[in-house]
Structures are given as C-alpha cells and as structure tokens.
Amino acid sequence: MIAEVILKKGEGRTIKAGGAWVYDNEIDRIDGDFENGDIVSVKDFDGYDMGYGFINTASRLTVRMLSRRGAEITEDFIRERVRAAWEYRKKVTDISSCRVIFGEADFLPGLVVDKFEDVLVVESLALGIDRLKPQILKDLTEILAEDGIAIRGIYERSDAPVRKKEGMEPFKGFLTEPFDTEVEITENGVRYYVDVKDGQKTGFFLDQKYNRKAIRELCRGGRVLDCFTHTGSFALNAYYAGAREVIGADVSELAVAQAEKNALLNGFRLLGTGEDGFSAGNVKGAVAGTVPSGSEAAGNGAENDKDRSIRFVCADVLDLLPKLEAAGERFDVVILDPPAFTKSREATKKAVKGYRDINMRGLKLVKNGGFLATCSCSHFMTEELFKKTIQEAARAAHKRLRQVEFRTQAPDHPILWSADQSYYLKFFIFQVVEER
C-alpha cells in the first residue's frame, strides 16, 4: 500500500490549476510509510483523488506530480509518456538534434534529455525521477530505434548544485560505454562541435535554434556584433547568411576557442584577434577558408568570401561595450544573448539593472536603422518586465524602437501553460531609430 499525502483545506492551488508541484506548506499529513523518492498518492483534504507523484521531504517541492485522476504509475505508463514526448518532437522540430524530454512540460518532472545526433545527454534534478531514469532511458533508446535511430552513447550532466536540495550529490559521467564526447551536429545548415562533457548545461543551447535562423536576413551584407557568443552560434549564423564582418565576444576562453573551432569547421574566414580585441585595423593571423559547397551560404555572398570575415574575442561584455562606444564603433546588427542574470525571485531587482545596462550599451552601438536582437533566459524576468526594461534602456540611449518580431524558445522546449517555470526564454528583434 503506497503512502497518501493529504493536502490542507484550501491548498493545492498549483496542481488544481494543472501544475506539477506540491509544496511542503500545503501538506496536512502523510498517511503510511514511505522513503524519499517513492511514488505516493495525493488527495485533497476531503479525500478527492488528485493523482500520483514522487515524494521527497528533503525538498520544499515535496511532491512532483506524474499523473492525474487516479492513473497509477506503471512501466507502461512511463513508456507512453516517453513515446508521447518523442512523437511530439517529430511533428514540431528538426529531430537530428533536439530536446527530447523537457521535465514538467513533458509530464516527467525534474528530467531533461537532449539528443545530439546519436548521443543522448541527460540531466536529472529530482530524487524520484532519478529512480525512474534507467527505465526512461531504456524506453527512449528503444523508441528511437523504432525510427531507425541507433544511440551510440549516453552521458549524464546532473552536475547542478540544485541536486543537493534533493539530498543528492551532483553527478557527471558516462551511463554507457565511454565514447568521444565531442559530438558534431548540424543545425539550420551550420555545423558545430558540441562538448557534452564540459560544455555549459548539456553542451549546447538548443532552445535558440529558430531564433538564430530568424536574424539571418538582417545580417546579410552588414557588420554584426554578437555579445555573450558562447560557442559562436549567433555569430556563425550571421556569417552563414552573408554578413560582411562578424565579431563574437565572450568572457570564457574555452567558449571562444570552441567558437573559433566551429568557424573553421564550417570553412568560414576566421581572423585572429587584434591587439585591442575588436579593431579591424589591428587584426592579424587571418585563416582563409571556403564556404561548404551547396550550402545556403553559397547564395549569400560566399563568392566574395575573401571580402568577409568572422572573429572572436575573449572579453567581459560589460567592459567591452563602453570601449566600443568610446572608439566610435557602430554595427548594423547587435545581438545580446546573456546568461540568466537571475535564478531567483529575490534577485530580480538586481537583474533588471543588469539587463537595462547591457541593452542601453548595445543600443548605442547600433547604426541608425540597424537592428538589435536581445533576449532573456530567466524565468523570473517576465515578458512584461523585460519589455519595460528594454523600453527604459531605449530612453536612456535616446533611441526609438520598432518591434520586428517577438519569439520564445524552440518548440522542443514546449511551454506548458499550467507550469510557469517552463516559459523562460524571451527574444525580441527591434529596428533601432535615432531620436530626431
């Protein structure tokens, strides 16, 4: 007999609205014996059956719901959840590399699985889902095999400190026989090396897949600055589209080295970093390359590749932007893709200042009539708050904004309306006009 979690009267509003979490302060009592990580039944104060989830009293999120209205958690139930997640991706996105399981949004709370070609990378952040992980990964590899996809290896990146809140130690390592952890993928025609072992998160940010594609036409023939470039993805898309000059900046030497490697993988004309980090007059160590034959880039000015360049600089963007402004540098397109400035509600006020400052600095570098692409990947930086912050930045920079497009995360990161935490990425493209 499984234990029963009984809610207090008037509590459980989140799960009653379709959410996945029961907090510790919503629970009246727990009837029966259990161990943390076990499946439990959740009932309202009057005995109404709310469904099943896994329990962990070491966490404020005491129960994470797996099913509703009495559906028991069996091996067949879990397999159908995994199959539904895969079938959804087949309908909405390029499945060569994609997020296959996105936690609560796929009704498998606490679990993320990314597919990079024939490699899976898994992140498990909840004790209960950690127990189900072997079955889920077995089911997933078998379901993929039904579509002719043979997985050669699985790597776990459950190294986030948040695991300690669940009473688990961070873990990182192979779940299969060891394999080469530098995986080559192709996204929208651009090739990348993905470091699943030491790259950020699971190795590559798949959520920006179609946002990277969205900036291409704006970059054709122009001068582009990509801030917080990480492994160069926006910068590479700008060059692929036919940008005349692309500069990518990131504070991480490892990220810059990976971005340069990705540029060479694509045969792009990579320039060495200049003495001042950004002035074309000081660039040295040019490495000539060719654009892959038959690619989309061949129709975007690749025949004049010798007149175009891409380079990456290792610099703190917050220090670099004012230097660029002081030097009189201006760009046709500026891209701001910073890491999350806040991961808690309490730190949001400080994050607003950070977003306002970098957007103000970025706007000052955009030529009149040029474009700004700016985003926030913080759940706590809401869409309305982000809009307000950008507007404040525009006023401070004496610029007027004409919205071109608003986008969110790629559809393999679905937004579940009853799970607010699944909506985190906000992406705007603006035309920037001088105040006159």
Can you summarize this structure?
By secondary structure, the protein is of the alpha/beta class. 26% of the residues lie in helices and 28% in strands.
Largest sheet: number of strands, sense, barrel closure? 7 strands, mixed
Instruction: Give the helix level as a range of percent.
Output: 25-40%
Structural class: alpha/beta
Low-confidence stretches: 274-303
Intertermini distance: 73 Å
Q: In what order do the strands lie side by side in the largest sheet?
A: 16-15-14-17-18-20-19
Question: What is the H level of CATH, i.e. the homologous superfamily of the largest domain?
Answer: Vaccinia Virus protein VP39
Order of helices and strands: EHEEEEEHEEEHEEEEHHEHEHEHEHEHEE
What number of domains? 3
Strand content: 25-35%
Q: Write the CATH architecture name of the largest domain.
A: 3-Layer(aba) Sandwich
Rg, Å, rounded: 24 Å
Number of helices: 10
CATH topology of the largest domain: Rossmann fold
Mean pLDDT over the full residue set: 90
